[in-house]
Amino acid sequence: MANNIQPTLAVETTWRMALIATGTTFFTSMRAMRQVVSTARVDEEALKVQRIAAEDALNVQQMTAKALERVVKKLAARADNLDGGPQA
Length: 88
What we know:
The protein is an all-alpha fold. The protein has one helix and no strands. It is rod-shaped.
């Protein structure tokens, strides 16, 4: 009788260990997938921030270009006044 119980116990123990290993693997993979999703969300937010920063930098460059254009026009007008009129 003892011989019949031992294989059953060994099979049951092996089955339990396999089930635990499968469950552990499953939950570990789920945790990893959640981390990937979380990282993707963080990356998406970082891309949004980078896009906004790039748009702001472009706006600043455009404003600077317009301001420099106004300064150049004013300087050209002053130079024209000092020289006695517009030059070709």
